[in-house]
């Protein structure tokens, strides 16, 4: 069988969010068609895809249709049931693989995996809500963050806790059975590494990214990260190790904490990552282009950062001021080196990612100041 899938073949995308939308656009630019599977009638990726199958990710008829019509399938979010990937990969080229997805989508398994690779990770306890008092030993862990093992994103499913009793109260009120309790680290910085790995196992790594979060949600990304070369090398080596060990094909991101001058892995995202969006405007090739190239079996591009970049996320909060829905005044912030991306989501909600703006230029500190000016104009 020919390893390289030729245009104008149909590719498949599981998930219809903004990451799926950017994949669709990248694939179409290379001459491919894309079918998106997503249960939301109005999903951003579904709207731009050549075909949208509006069904759940476990609908077997929909999966059969995808595997029949698509030459290869990728995903854009980790909460696709791993059985879905397992089912598809028996019929059609599907990446990332089901083993990688099943590890990464459960924090308990993900942390265990990272630890077993000998990669540093912050102190944590895996907890099952029904066995908690038998297992729990480390009272030094507080103040801590209790995270449900599955289905959390953008800080959702996480609570800051200071005592065993607070943990118990959450268990009593939650349907979730499995959690991790993480020691709250004093963060000097957060960084991420986004890389892509081809079918042949060749990797191409984007420059290390510095990330600032607000209330658990990514707010600002700065490229290149303002950390030492040693931290960059160390983070890159860990991310490579993880991607190789997972036998990963596609684009993957690893988030890191720097605390008390030490590097720890926070979590893995088996997909392109919000912090990698700068690549759309600041690199010769984007994280989505590389995801497509990996999937179709071509060599990945060498990556060049052509300008430094600062990316500002646009959350639904911006649309919802004084209790009304209003479109922010983007016309006031237009400019040559200001790239505004809106995802085409109909209903803004607090904390919902609606778009982002990437500023490119030479002087990073200047770009950060400009980003803050844009923020204050838009939020006015
Ligand atoms: P999500 O899957 O929602 O991105 P994360 O585990 O990455 O969840 O947490 C979101 C953010 O919350 C992190 O980027 C960081 O800013 C903060 N955070 C999470 N865990 C810790 C921790 N153990 N110590 C300090 N801050 C944390
Ligand atoms: Mg995270």
Note down, in words, how this protein is organized.
With 380 residues, the chain is α+β, with helices and mostly antiparallel strands. It is 30% helix and 29% strand. It has helices at 18-29, 44-48, 60-69, 82-89, 98-104, 107-116, 132-135, 164-173, 229-245, 279-282, 287-296, 364-379, and strands at 10-14, 33-37, 51-53, 72-75, 93-94, 124-128, 144-148, 158-161, 178-183, 187-197, 203-205, 209-214, 217-223, 250-259, 262-269, 308-315, 320-321, 324-325, 338-342, 353-361. Strands 10, 11, 12, 13, 14, 15, 16, 19 and 20 form a nine-stranded antiparallel β-sheet that branches. α1 crosses α11 (287-296) and α4 (82-89) packs antiparallel against α5 (98-104). The radius of gyration is 21 Å and the shape is globular. It starts with 9 loop residues before the first strand and ends with a helix. The protein binds adenosine-5'-diphosphate and magnesium ion. Residues 122, 145, 147, 152-155, 182, 184-185, 187, 190, 213, 216, 255, 266-267 line the site of adenosine-5'-diphosphate (ADP).
């Amino acid at each position: 069988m020919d390893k390289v899938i030729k245009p104008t073949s149909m590719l498949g995308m599981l998930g219809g969010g903004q990451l799926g939308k950017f994949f669709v656009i990248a694939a179409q630019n290379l001459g491919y068609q894309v079918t998106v599977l997503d249960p939301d009638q109005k999903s951003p990726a579904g709207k731009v895809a050549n075909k949208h199958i509006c069904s759940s990710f476990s609908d077997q008829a929909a999966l059969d249709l995808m595997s029949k019509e698509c030459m290869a399938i990728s995903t854009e979010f980790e909460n696709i049931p791993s059985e879905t990937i397992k089912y598809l990969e028996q019929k059609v080229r599907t990446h990332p693989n089901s083993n990688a997805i099943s590890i990464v989508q459960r924090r308990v398994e993900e942390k265990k995996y990272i630890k077993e690779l000998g990669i540093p990770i912050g102190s944590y306890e895996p907890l099952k809500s029904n066995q908690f008092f038998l297992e729990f030993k480390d009272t030094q862990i507080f103040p801590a963050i209790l995270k449900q093992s599955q289905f959390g994103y953008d800080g959702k499913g996480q609570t800051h806790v200071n005592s065993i009793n607070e943990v118990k109260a959450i268990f009593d009120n939650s349907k979730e059975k499995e959690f991790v309790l993480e020691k709250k680290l004093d963060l000097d910085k957060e960084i991420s590494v986004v890389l892509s790995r081809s079918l042949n196992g060749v990797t191409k790594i984007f420059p290390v990214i510095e990330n600032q979060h607000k209330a658990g949600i990514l707010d600002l990304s700065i490229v290149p990260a303002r950390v030492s070369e040693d931290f960059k090398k160390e983070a890159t080596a860990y991310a490579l190790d993880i991607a190789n060990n997972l036998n990963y094909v596609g684009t993957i991101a690893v988030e890191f904490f720097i605390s008390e001058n030490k590097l720890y892995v926070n979590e893995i995202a088996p997909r392109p990552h919000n912090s990698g969006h700068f690549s759309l405007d600041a690199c010769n090739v984007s994280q989505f282009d590389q995801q497509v190239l990996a999937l179709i079996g071509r060599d990945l591009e060498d990556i060049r950062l052509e300008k430094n970049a600062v990316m500002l996320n646009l959350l639904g909060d911006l649309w919802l001021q004084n209790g009304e829905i209003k479109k922010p005044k983007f016309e006031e912030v237009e400019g040559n080196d200001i790239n505004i991306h809106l995802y085409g989501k109909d209903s803004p909600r607090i904390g919902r990612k609606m778009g982002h703006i990437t500023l490119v230029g030479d002087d990073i500190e200047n770009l950060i100041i400009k980003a803050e000016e844009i923020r204050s104009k838009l939020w006015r």
